[in-house]
Protein backbone atom coordinates (compact mmCIF):
# COMPACT_ATOMS: atom_id res chain seq x y z
CA UNK A 1 0.00 0.00 0.00
CA UNK A 2 1.37 3.41 -0.83
CA UNK A 3 0.88 5.84 1.97
CA UNK A 4 1.09 9.58 1.69
CA UNK A 5 4.47 9.45 3.39
CA UNK A 6 5.89 6.86 1.03
CA UNK A 7 4.81 8.93 -1.95
CA UNK A 8 6.41 11.99 -0.44
CA UNK A 9 9.62 10.06 0.21
CA UNK A 10 9.74 8.76 -3.33
CA UNK A 11 9.32 12.24 -4.79
CA UNK A 12 11.91 13.78 -2.49
CA UNK A 13 14.48 11.04 -3.01
CA UNK A 14 14.02 11.06 -6.79
CA UNK A 15 14.85 14.74 -7.02
CA UNK A 16 17.91 14.70 -4.82
CA UNK A 17 21.50 14.70 -6.02
CA UNK A 18 24.32 14.68 -3.48
CA UNK A 19 27.85 14.96 -4.81
CA UNK A 20 31.36 16.13 -4.04
CA UNK A 21 33.74 17.99 -6.30
CA UNK A 22 37.20 16.47 -6.33
CA UNK A 23 40.17 18.35 -7.69
CA UNK A 24 43.66 19.57 -7.09
CA UNK A 25 44.06 23.10 -5.66
CA UNK A 26 43.73 25.82 -8.29
CA UNK A 27 41.85 23.74 -10.83
CA UNK A 28 38.88 26.07 -10.28
CA UNK A 29 36.69 24.30 -7.74
CA UNK A 30 35.67 27.47 -5.95
CA UNK A 31 34.88 29.14 -9.23
CA UNK A 32 32.82 26.21 -10.50
CA UNK A 33 30.97 25.90 -7.19
CA UNK A 34 30.10 29.60 -7.25
CA UNK A 35 28.75 29.34 -10.78
CA UNK A 36 26.67 26.29 -9.90
CA UNK A 37 25.23 28.11 -6.92
CA UNK A 38 24.36 31.09 -9.07
CA UNK A 39 22.33 28.91 -11.41
CA UNK A 40 20.56 27.38 -8.51
CA UNK A 41 19.80 30.36 -6.34
CA UNK A 42 21.35 28.78 -3.29
CA UNK A 43 19.01 28.09 -0.46
CA UNK A 44 21.53 27.03 2.08
CA UNK A 45 25.22 27.66 2.16
CA UNK A 46 27.28 26.00 4.75
CA UNK A 47 29.51 28.95 5.32
CA UNK A 48 31.82 29.04 2.39
CA UNK A 49 32.40 29.28 -0.67
CA UNK A 50 36.00 29.29 0.44
CA UNK A 51 37.86 32.54 0.81
CA UNK A 52 40.21 33.19 -2.01
CA UNK A 53 43.78 33.66 -0.99
CA UNK A 54 44.60 35.05 2.41
CA UNK A 55 42.73 38.32 2.47
CA UNK A 56 39.23 37.22 1.59
CA UNK A 57 37.96 35.32 4.60
CA UNK A 58 35.48 32.57 4.22
CA UNK A 59 32.36 33.10 6.25
CA UNK A 60 32.88 29.64 7.70
CA UNK A 61 35.92 30.64 9.68
CA UNK A 62 34.77 28.50 12.53
CA UNK A 63 38.10 27.72 13.93
CA UNK A 64 40.64 30.26 14.94
CA UNK A 65 43.17 28.53 12.80
CA UNK A 66 41.01 29.03 9.75
CA UNK A 67 41.08 32.72 10.39
CA UNK A 68 44.81 32.75 10.81
CA UNK A 69 45.37 30.96 7.55
CA UNK A 70 42.53 32.54 5.64
CA UNK A 71 41.39 29.21 4.31
CA UNK A 72 38.56 26.90 4.99
CA UNK A 73 39.87 23.89 6.83
CA UNK A 74 36.71 21.94 6.87
CA UNK A 75 34.41 20.51 4.33
CA UNK A 76 31.03 22.09 4.21
CA UNK A 77 27.77 21.54 2.45
CA UNK A 78 25.82 23.69 0.04
CA UNK A 79 22.25 23.15 -1.01
CA UNK A 80 20.32 24.58 -3.94
CA UNK A 81 17.35 23.86 -6.18
CA UNK A 82 17.59 23.66 -9.94
CA UNK A 83 14.89 22.58 -12.39
CA UNK A 84 13.07 20.71 -9.68
CA UNK A 85 16.17 18.96 -8.38
CA UNK A 86 17.46 19.50 -4.89
CA UNK A 87 21.22 19.52 -5.07
CA UNK A 88 23.64 19.00 -2.17
CA UNK A 89 27.27 19.81 -2.90
CA UNK A 90 29.72 18.46 -0.38
CA UNK A 91 32.73 20.69 -0.43
CA UNK A 92 36.13 19.12 0.02
CA UNK A 93 38.95 21.39 1.11
CA UNK A 94 40.85 22.40 -1.98
CA UNK A 95 43.92 23.50 -0.10
CA UNK A 96 47.09 21.47 -0.11
CA UNK A 97 46.48 20.74 3.54
CA UNK A 98 43.50 18.56 3.07
CA UNK A 99 42.80 15.91 5.63
CA UNK A 100 41.15 12.62 6.34
CA UNK A 101 37.90 14.56 6.59
CA UNK A 102 38.11 15.07 2.87
CA UNK A 103 38.19 11.33 2.31
CA UNK A 104 35.39 10.71 4.76
CA UNK A 105 33.22 13.34 3.18
CA UNK A 106 33.29 11.27 0.02
CA UNK A 107 31.54 8.46 1.87
CA UNK A 108 28.52 10.75 2.21
CA UNK A 109 28.37 11.55 -1.52
CA UNK A 110 26.45 9.60 -4.14
CA UNK A 111 28.63 10.75 -7.01
CA UNK A 112 31.66 12.90 -7.68
CA UNK A 113 32.58 15.63 -10.10
CA UNK A 114 36.25 15.51 -11.01
CA UNK A 115 37.53 18.90 -12.03
CA UNK A 116 40.67 19.05 -14.12
CA UNK A 117 42.76 21.98 -15.31
CA UNK A 118 43.16 21.49 -19.06
CA UNK A 119 46.77 22.65 -18.95
CA UNK A 120 47.75 20.43 -16.02
CA UNK A 121 45.79 17.23 -16.42
CA UNK A 122 45.48 14.76 -13.55
CA UNK A 123 47.30 16.07 -10.46
CA UNK A 124 48.27 14.42 -7.17
CA UNK A 125 45.31 15.38 -5.04
CA UNK A 126 42.81 14.52 -7.75
CA UNK A 127 44.42 11.12 -7.97
CA UNK A 128 44.11 10.46 -4.24
CA UNK A 129 40.49 11.56 -4.08
CA UNK A 130 39.68 9.63 -7.21
CA UNK A 131 40.97 6.45 -5.62
CA UNK A 132 38.58 6.83 -2.70
CA UNK A 133 35.67 7.30 -5.11
CA UNK A 134 36.85 4.32 -7.07
CA UNK A 135 36.89 2.15 -3.95
CA UNK A 136 33.30 3.12 -3.31
CA UNK A 137 32.34 2.51 -6.93
CA UNK A 138 30.42 5.78 -7.26
CA UNK A 139 29.85 7.46 -10.64
CA UNK A 140 32.42 10.09 -11.57
CA UNK A 141 31.76 12.99 -13.93
CA UNK A 142 34.64 15.00 -15.36
CA UNK A 143 34.75 18.72 -16.09
CA UNK A 144 37.86 19.83 -17.94
CA UNK A 145 38.32 23.47 -17.09
CA UNK A 146 40.11 26.58 -18.37
CA UNK A 147 39.54 25.97 -22.08
CA UNK A 148 39.92 29.73 -22.56
CA UNK A 149 43.63 29.16 -21.91
CA UNK A 150 46.11 27.25 -23.96
CA UNK A 151 45.77 23.70 -22.68
CA UNK A 152 46.78 20.20 -23.58
CA UNK A 153 45.40 18.21 -26.46
CA UNK A 154 42.02 16.77 -25.38
CA UNK A 155 43.03 13.29 -26.52
CA UNK A 156 46.12 13.48 -24.30
CA UNK A 157 43.92 14.39 -21.36
CA UNK A 158 41.56 11.47 -21.97
CA UNK A 159 44.52 9.17 -22.38
CA UNK A 160 45.80 10.38 -19.03
CA UNK A 161 42.48 9.60 -17.34
CA UNK A 162 42.88 6.09 -18.58
CA UNK A 163 46.60 5.64 -17.91
CA UNK A 164 46.84 7.35 -14.54
CA UNK A 165 43.39 6.71 -13.10
CA UNK A 166 42.35 3.64 -15.00
CA UNK A 167 38.98 5.05 -15.99
CA UNK A 168 37.59 5.16 -19.52
CA UNK A 169 35.86 8.26 -20.73
CA UNK A 170 33.06 9.45 -22.95
CA UNK A 171 33.33 13.09 -24.07
CA UNK A 172 29.84 14.60 -24.00
CA UNK A 173 31.13 17.60 -25.88
CA UNK A 174 34.34 18.49 -27.67
CA UNK A 175 36.29 21.74 -27.74
CA UNK A 176 36.70 23.69 -30.95
CA UNK A 177 40.16 25.20 -30.49
CA UNK A 178 41.57 26.39 -27.20
CA UNK A 179 43.15 29.45 -25.64
CA UNK A 180 42.93 32.52 -27.87
CA UNK A 181 41.32 30.46 -30.60
CA UNK A 182 38.70 28.86 -28.41
CA UNK A 183 35.39 29.08 -30.32
CA UNK A 184 33.20 26.86 -28.21
CA UNK A 185 32.21 23.23 -27.92
CA UNK A 186 30.40 20.75 -30.12
CA UNK A 187 27.64 18.96 -28.19
CA UNK A 188 27.65 15.36 -29.37
CA UNK A 189 24.26 14.42 -28.07
CA UNK A 190 22.32 17.49 -29.08
CA UNK A 191 24.33 18.00 -32.30
CA UNK A 192 24.74 21.67 -31.73
CA UNK A 193 27.55 24.02 -30.99
CA UNK A 194 27.77 26.24 -28.00
CA UNK A 195 29.58 29.40 -28.89
CA UNK A 196 32.19 31.06 -26.78
CA UNK A 197 31.67 34.63 -27.84
CA UNK A 198 31.77 38.10 -26.40
CA UNK A 199 32.24 38.89 -22.74
CA UNK A 200 28.90 37.82 -21.41
CA UNK A 201 28.72 34.06 -21.29
CA UNK A 202 25.89 33.88 -18.83
CA UNK A 203 23.49 33.13 -21.64
CA UNK A 204 24.41 30.11 -23.68
CA UNK A 205 24.61 30.92 -27.34
CA UNK A 206 23.82 27.82 -29.27
CA UNK A 207 23.63 26.99 -32.90
CA UNK A 208 21.99 23.77 -34.03
CA UNK A 209 23.99 21.97 -36.71
CA UNK A 210 23.44 18.86 -38.78
CA UNK A 211 26.57 17.18 -37.40
CA UNK A 212 30.20 17.96 -36.62
CA UNK A 213 30.90 18.23 -40.34
CA UNK A 214 28.23 20.87 -40.92
CA UNK A 215 29.82 23.59 -43.11
CA UNK A 216 28.21 26.18 -40.85
CA UNK A 217 30.91 25.31 -38.28
CA UNK A 218 33.57 26.11 -40.87
CA UNK A 219 32.18 29.60 -41.21
CA UNK A 220 32.37 30.18 -37.50
CA UNK A 221 35.62 28.43 -36.65
CA UNK A 222 37.59 28.68 -39.89
CA UNK A 223 39.05 25.93 -42.06
CA UNK A 224 41.75 24.75 -39.71
CA UNK A 225 39.66 24.28 -36.57
CA UNK A 226 36.80 22.83 -38.59
CA UNK A 227 39.04 20.17 -40.08
CA UNK A 228 40.53 19.33 -36.75
CA UNK A 229 37.08 19.00 -35.22
CA UNK A 230 35.99 16.65 -38.01
CA UNK A 231 39.12 14.53 -37.63
CA UNK A 232 38.83 14.37 -33.85
CA UNK A 233 35.19 13.40 -33.83
CA UNK A 234 35.57 10.86 -36.55
CA UNK A 235 38.27 9.28 -34.47
CA UNK A 236 36.09 9.38 -31.37
CA UNK A 237 33.18 7.82 -33.20
CA UNK A 238 35.34 5.02 -34.48
CA UNK A 239 37.80 4.39 -31.69
CA UNK A 240 36.17 5.94 -28.62
CA UNK A 241 34.07 4.09 -26.07
CA UNK A 242 30.35 4.12 -26.67
CA UNK A 243 28.21 5.80 -24.04
CA UNK A 244 27.13 3.14 -21.55
CA UNK A 245 25.01 4.19 -18.60
CA UNK A 246 25.67 0.97 -16.72
CA UNK A 247 29.41 1.63 -16.83
CA UNK A 248 28.85 5.21 -15.73
CA UNK A 249 26.88 3.95 -12.73
CA UNK A 250 29.66 1.56 -11.80
CA UNK A 251 32.27 4.32 -12.02
CA UNK A 252 34.00 2.60 -14.95
CA UNK A 253 33.23 5.22 -17.56
CA UNK A 254 33.31 8.95 -16.92
CA UNK A 255 31.26 11.39 -18.98
CA UNK A 256 33.58 14.29 -19.83
CA UNK A 257 32.59 17.93 -20.34
CA UNK A 258 34.84 20.75 -21.53
CA UNK A 259 34.33 24.34 -20.46
CA UNK A 260 35.59 27.39 -18.66
CA UNK A 261 34.22 27.93 -15.20
CA UNK A 262 35.39 31.51 -14.81
CA UNK A 263 33.61 32.50 -18.01
CA UNK A 264 30.58 30.51 -16.98
CA UNK A 265 31.00 28.64 -20.22
CA UNK A 266 29.72 25.09 -20.38
CA UNK A 267 28.67 25.14 -16.73
CA UNK A 268 24.93 25.16 -17.27
CA UNK A 269 25.06 22.42 -19.88
CA UNK A 270 27.22 20.44 -17.53
CA UNK A 271 24.80 20.95 -14.64
CA UNK A 272 21.79 19.92 -16.68
CA UNK A 273 23.41 16.78 -18.03
CA UNK A 274 24.87 15.93 -14.68
CA UNK A 275 21.51 16.19 -12.91
CA UNK A 276 20.02 13.92 -15.51
CA UNK A 277 22.74 11.28 -15.33
CA UNK A 278 23.85 11.40 -11.71
CA UNK A 279 22.29 8.95 -9.29
CA UNK A 280 19.70 9.83 -6.70
CA UNK A 281 20.40 8.50 -3.20
CA UNK A 282 20.87 4.75 -3.41
CA UNK A 283 20.25 2.00 -0.86
CA UNK A 284 23.06 1.60 1.69
CA UNK A 285 24.36 -1.49 3.43
CA UNK A 286 23.71 -1.87 7.15
CA UNK A 287 23.43 -4.40 9.95
CA UNK A 288 19.77 -4.71 9.00
CA UNK A 289 20.56 -5.37 5.33
CA UNK A 290 20.23 -2.92 2.47
CA UNK A 291 18.26 0.13 3.48
CA UNK A 292 16.19 1.81 0.81
CA UNK A 293 16.27 5.62 0.93
CA UNK A 294 12.48 5.58 0.67
CA UNK A 295 12.10 3.41 3.78
CA UNK A 296 9.76 5.28 6.08
CA UNK A 297 11.97 4.81 9.08
CA UNK A 298 14.51 7.59 9.46
CA UNK A 299 18.20 6.62 9.57
CA UNK A 300 21.61 8.08 8.88
CA UNK A 301 25.24 8.12 9.91
CA UNK A 302 27.72 10.66 11.21
CA UNK A 303 30.63 11.16 8.81
CA UNK A 304 32.30 14.15 10.32
CA UNK A 305 32.54 16.00 13.60
CA UNK A 306 33.39 19.64 13.63
CA UNK A 307 34.65 21.06 16.86
CA UNK A 308 34.54 24.65 17.93
CA UNK A 309 32.29 25.91 15.20
CA UNK A 310 31.61 28.68 17.59
CA UNK A 311 34.66 29.25 19.77
CA UNK A 312 32.55 31.17 22.28
CA UNK A 313 30.54 28.07 23.04
CA UNK A 314 33.08 25.39 22.34
CA UNK A 315 30.33 23.26 20.93
CA UNK A 316 30.67 20.57 18.36
CA UNK A 317 28.56 19.73 15.39
CA UNK A 318 28.12 16.23 14.05
CA UNK A 319 27.40 16.03 10.32
CA UNK A 320 24.84 13.39 9.54
CA UNK A 321 24.09 11.97 6.12
CA UNK A 322 20.45 10.92 5.99
CA UNK A 323 20.08 7.51 4.39
CA UNK A 324 16.37 6.85 4.74
CA UNK A 325 13.07 8.25 5.89
CA UNK A 326 12.08 11.75 6.82
CA UNK A 327 13.83 13.88 9.32
CA UNK A 328 11.60 16.18 11.37
CA UNK A 329 12.80 18.65 13.90
CA UNK A 330 12.28 17.49 17.45
CA UNK A 331 11.99 13.83 16.54
CA UNK A 332 13.41 11.15 18.82
CA UNK A 333 15.85 8.66 17.44
CA UNK A 334 18.04 5.84 18.69
CA UNK A 335 21.70 6.53 19.08
CA UNK A 336 22.55 2.92 18.44
CA UNK A 337 26.10 2.70 19.81
CA UNK A 338 25.23 4.55 23.00
CA UNK A 339 21.99 2.58 23.36
CA UNK A 340 20.13 5.79 24.04
CA UNK A 341 17.09 7.57 22.76
CA UNK A 342 17.91 11.18 21.83
CA UNK A 343 15.86 14.10 20.69
CA UNK A 344 17.01 15.98 17.62
CA UNK A 345 15.81 19.36 18.63
CA UNK A 346 18.50 21.65 17.34
CA UNK A 347 19.42 20.38 13.93
CA UNK A 348 21.26 22.90 11.85
CA UNK A 349 22.18 23.43 8.34
CA UNK A 350 25.29 24.65 10.18
CA UNK A 351 25.55 27.90 8.42
CA UNK A 352 28.30 30.18 9.50
CA UNK A 353 27.00 32.89 11.81
CA UNK A 354 23.28 32.52 11.54
CA UNK A 355 22.80 28.84 11.60
CA UNK A 356 19.67 27.86 9.85
CA UNK A 357 17.37 25.48 11.61
CA UNK A 358 16.20 22.62 9.45
CA UNK A 359 12.63 21.46 9.85
CA UNK A 360 12.51 18.59 7.44
CA UNK A 361 15.09 16.71 5.42
CA UNK A 362 15.26 13.50 3.42
CA UNK A 363 17.72 10.85 2.27
CA UNK A 364 20.65 12.50 0.53
CA UNK A 365 20.53 15.59 2.73
CA UNK A 366 23.14 16.45 5.31
CA UNK A 367 22.17 17.90 8.65
CA UNK A 368 24.33 19.27 11.42
CA UNK A 369 23.50 18.04 14.89
CA UNK A 370 24.49 19.83 18.03
CA UNK A 371 26.91 17.50 19.75
CA UNK A 372 27.53 17.75 23.48
CA UNK A 373 30.20 15.06 23.05
CA UNK A 374 27.97 12.07 22.42
CA UNK A 375 28.80 11.35 18.78
CA UNK A 376 31.68 9.62 17.10
CA UNK A 377 32.50 9.37 13.45
CA UNK A 378 30.58 6.46 11.98
CA UNK A 379 27.75 6.52 14.57
CA UNK A 380 24.34 5.53 13.27
CA UNK A 381 21.04 7.09 14.27
CA UNK A 382 17.72 5.48 13.50
CA UNK A 383 14.07 5.64 14.35
CA UNK A 384 12.34 2.75 16.11
CA UNK A 385 14.44 -0.33 15.27
CA UNK A 386 18.22 -0.33 15.18
CA UNK A 387 20.03 0.23 11.92
CA UNK A 388 23.82 0.36 12.00
CA UNK A 389 25.55 1.49 8.83
CA UNK A 390 28.78 -0.14 7.78
CA UNK A 391 31.78 1.38 9.47
CA UNK A 392 33.51 4.21 7.65
CA UNK A 393 36.90 3.22 6.35
CA UNK A 394 40.03 4.42 8.15
CA UNK A 395 42.43 5.58 5.48
CA UNK A 396 46.17 5.26 5.58
CA UNK A 397 47.85 8.39 6.94
CA UNK A 398 50.54 9.94 4.78
CA UNK A 399 52.44 11.99 7.38
CA UNK A 400 53.69 10.75 10.74
CA UNK A 401 55.08 12.43 13.85
CA UNK A 402 56.22 11.20 17.19
CA UNK A 403 54.44 13.18 19.87
CA UNK A 404 55.54 13.94 23.42
CA UNK A 405 54.17 16.18 26.13
CA UNK A 406 56.44 19.03 27.19
CA UNK A 407 55.34 19.07 30.80
CA UNK A 408 55.09 15.59 32.30
CA UNK A 409 52.70 16.91 34.98
CA UNK A 410 50.10 17.37 32.28
CA UNK A 411 50.12 13.77 31.27
CA UNK A 412 46.50 13.14 32.21
CA UNK A 413 45.09 16.02 30.15
CA UNK A 414 47.42 15.04 27.34
CA UNK A 415 45.98 11.54 27.30
CA UNK A 416 42.45 12.85 27.45
CA UNK A 417 43.12 15.19 24.53
CA UNK A 418 44.66 12.47 22.44
CA UNK A 419 41.78 10.10 23.15
CA UNK A 420 39.18 12.66 22.31
CA UNK A 421 40.83 13.96 19.17
CA UNK A 422 41.38 10.42 17.93
CA UNK A 423 37.74 9.64 18.54
CA UNK A 424 36.71 12.70 16.57
CA UNK A 425 38.90 11.51 13.76
CA UNK A 426 41.16 14.55 13.87
CA UNK A 427 44.22 12.32 14.01
CA UNK A 428 45.10 8.64 14.05
CA UNK A 429 47.22 7.36 16.85
CA UNK A 430 49.65 4.45 16.88
CA UNK A 431 51.83 2.99 19.62
CA UNK A 432 55.23 1.51 19.11
CA UNK A 433 55.69 -1.98 20.40
CA UNK A 434 57.75 -2.28 23.58
CA UNK A 435 58.53 1.41 24.14
CA UNK A 436 54.92 2.54 23.91
CA UNK A 437 55.87 5.73 22.12
CA UNK A 438 52.96 7.58 20.55
CA UNK A 439 52.97 8.22 16.83
CA UNK A 440 50.38 10.41 15.17
CA UNK A 441 49.30 9.81 11.62
CA UNK A 442 47.50 12.34 9.43
CA UNK A 443 46.67 12.87 5.79
CA UNK A 444 47.48 16.59 5.63
CA UNK A 445 50.04 18.75 7.42
CA UNK A 446 47.32 21.06 8.67
CA UNK A 447 45.92 18.27 10.83
CA UNK A 448 49.14 18.39 12.88
CA UNK A 449 48.72 22.12 13.32
CA UNK A 450 45.10 21.74 14.32
CA UNK A 451 46.15 19.03 16.78
CA UNK A 452 48.84 21.20 18.38
CA UNK A 453 46.53 24.17 18.51
CA UNK A 454 43.64 22.29 20.05
CA UNK A 455 45.81 20.46 22.61
CA UNK A 456 46.92 23.85 23.83
CA UNK A 457 43.60 25.69 23.54
CA UNK A 458 41.29 22.99 24.84
CA UNK A 459 43.43 20.84 27.12
CA UNK A 460 46.12 23.30 28.15
CA UNK A 461 48.88 20.99 26.98
CA UNK A 462 52.00 21.88 25.03
CA UNK A 463 53.08 19.07 22.80
CA UNK A 464 56.20 18.42 20.79
CA UNK A 465 55.95 16.85 17.38
CA UNK A 466 58.87 15.19 15.70
CA UNK A 467 58.34 14.34 12.06
CA UNK A 468 59.15 10.82 10.93
CA UNK A 469 60.04 9.62 7.45
CA UNK A 470 57.17 7.22 6.95
CA UNK A 471 54.85 7.81 4.03
CA UNK A 472 52.07 5.32 4.49
CA UNK A 473 50.67 2.58 6.69
CA UNK A 474 49.44 -0.92 5.98
CA UNK A 475 47.22 -2.89 8.32
CA UNK A 476 48.52 -6.41 8.71
CA UNK A 477 46.32 -9.46 8.80
CA UNK A 478 47.69 -12.97 9.12
CA UNK A 479 48.56 -15.87 11.39
CA UNK A 480 51.66 -14.54 13.14
CA UNK A 481 53.49 -11.28 13.01
CA UNK A 482 57.22 -11.01 13.65
CA UNK A 483 58.43 -7.49 14.53
CA UNK A 484 61.93 -8.55 13.44
CA UNK A 485 60.75 -8.56 9.85
CA UNK A 486 59.82 -4.86 9.91
CA UNK A 487 63.11 -3.17 10.60
CA UNK A 488 64.33 -1.76 7.30
CA UNK A 489 62.72 1.58 6.48
CA UNK A 490 59.64 0.41 8.27
CA UNK A 491 58.26 0.03 11.76
CA UNK A 492 55.68 -2.19 13.37
CA UNK A 493 53.12 -0.42 15.58
CA UNK A 494 49.58 -0.97 16.87
CA UNK A 495 46.53 1.17 16.23
CA UNK A 496 44.02 2.10 18.91
CA UNK A 497 42.08 -1.10 18.35
CA UNK A 498 45.27 -3.13 18.84
CA UNK A 499 45.57 -4.05 15.18
CA UNK A 500 49.09 -4.54 13.90
CA UNK A 501 50.12 -1.82 11.47
CA UNK A 502 53.38 -1.40 9.58
CA UNK A 503 54.63 2.07 8.66
CA UNK A 504 56.76 2.38 5.55
CA UNK A 505 59.15 4.97 4.21
CA UNK A 506 58.63 4.02 0.59
CA UNK A 507 57.17 1.50 -1.83
CA UNK A 508 60.43 -0.38 -1.90
CA UNK A 509 60.28 -1.03 1.84
CA UNK A 510 56.72 -2.24 1.45
CA UNK A 511 57.67 -4.64 -1.32
CA UNK A 512 60.54 -6.01 0.75
CA UNK A 513 58.25 -6.57 3.72
CA UNK A 514 55.68 -8.28 1.52
CA UNK A 515 58.33 -10.64 0.19
CA UNK A 516 59.51 -11.47 3.69
CA UNK A 517 55.98 -12.06 4.94
CA UNK A 518 54.15 -14.00 2.27
CA UNK A 519 51.47 -15.14 4.75
CA UNK A 520 50.40 -11.63 5.64
CA UNK A 521 47.87 -9.37 4.00
CA UNK A 522 48.82 -5.69 3.75
CA UNK A 523 45.63 -3.61 3.77
CA UNK A 524 45.54 0.10 2.95
CA UNK A 525 42.42 0.67 5.04
CA UNK A 526 41.89 -0.61 8.57
CA UNK A 527 40.27 -4.07 8.73
P1 LIG B 1 40.38 26.05 -6.43
O1 LIG B 1 39.16 26.36 -5.62
O2 LIG B 1 40.26 24.77 -7.18
O3 LIG B 1 41.66 26.18 -5.70
O4 LIG B 1 40.46 27.12 -7.63
P2 LIG B 1 39.82 28.55 -7.80
O5 LIG B 1 38.38 28.46 -8.17
O6 LIG B 1 40.21 29.42 -6.66
O7 LIG B 1 40.59 28.98 -9.12
C1 LIG B 1 42.00 29.03 -9.19
C2 LIG B 1 42.42 30.06 -10.21
O8 LIG B 1 41.98 29.64 -11.51
C3 LIG B 1 41.78 31.41 -9.99
O9 LIG B 1 42.69 32.40 -10.44
C4 LIG B 1 40.59 31.40 -10.92
O10 LIG B 1 40.18 32.68 -11.31
C5 LIG B 1 41.18 30.64 -12.09
N1 LIG B 1 40.16 30.00 -12.94
C6 LIG B 1 39.10 29.24 -12.58
N2 LIG B 1 38.41 28.85 -13.67
C7 LIG B 1 39.07 29.33 -14.75
C8 LIG B 1 38.84 29.27 -16.15
O11 LIG B 1 37.89 28.69 -16.66
N3 LIG B 1 39.75 29.91 -16.94
C9 LIG B 1 40.82 30.60 -16.44
N4 LIG B 1 41.63 31.19 -17.28
N5 LIG B 1 41.05 30.69 -15.11
C10 LIG B 1 40.19 30.08 -14.28
P3 LIG B 1 43.68 33.16 -9.47
O12 LIG B 1 44.32 34.22 -10.28
O13 LIG B 1 44.57 32.19 -8.77
O14 LIG B 1 42.73 33.73 -8.37
P4 LIG B 1 41.84 35.04 -8.43
O15 LIG B 1 42.80 36.13 -8.22
O16 LIG B 1 41.20 35.06 -9.81
O17 LIG B 1 40.87 34.87 -7.34
Query: Which ligands are bound?
Result: guanosine-5',3'-tetraphosphate
- Assigned CATH superfamily of the largest domain: P-loop containing nucleotide triphosphate hydrolases
Please name the CATH topology of the largest domain: Rossmann fold
The low-confidence runs, each spanning 5 or more residues with pLDDT under 50, are: 44-75, 350-355
Approximately what portion of the residues adopt beta-strand conformation?
Answer: 25-35%
Main beta sheet: strand number and arrangement? Answer: 8 strands, mixed
Give the beta-strand count. Answer: 30
State the end-to-end CA separation.
Answer: 41 Å
From the spread of the alpha carbons, the general shape counts as: globular
Number of helices: 12
Instruction: Please estimate the helix content.
Output: 25-40%
* Rounded average pLDDT: 86
What is the CATH C level class of the largest domain, in words? Alpha Beta
Structural class of the secondary structure composition?
Answer: alpha+beta
User: What is the spatial order of strands in the main beta sheet?
Assistant: 2-3-4-1-5-6-12-7
Amino acid sequence: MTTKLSQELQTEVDRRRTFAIISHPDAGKTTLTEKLLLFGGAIRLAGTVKGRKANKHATSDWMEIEKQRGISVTSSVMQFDYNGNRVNILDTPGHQDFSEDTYRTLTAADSAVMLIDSAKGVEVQTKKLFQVCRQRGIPIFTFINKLDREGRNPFDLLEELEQVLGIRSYPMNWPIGSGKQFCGVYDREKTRIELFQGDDHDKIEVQPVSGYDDPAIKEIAGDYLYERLCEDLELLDVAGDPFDMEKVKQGELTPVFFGSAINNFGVQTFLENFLQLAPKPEPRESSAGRIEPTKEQFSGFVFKIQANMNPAHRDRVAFLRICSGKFERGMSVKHVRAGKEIKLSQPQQFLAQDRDIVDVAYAGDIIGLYDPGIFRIGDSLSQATEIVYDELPTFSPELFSKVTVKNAMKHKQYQKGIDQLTEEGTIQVFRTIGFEDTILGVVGQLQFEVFEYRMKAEYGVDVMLQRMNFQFARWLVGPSIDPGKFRINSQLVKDKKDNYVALFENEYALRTAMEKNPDLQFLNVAP
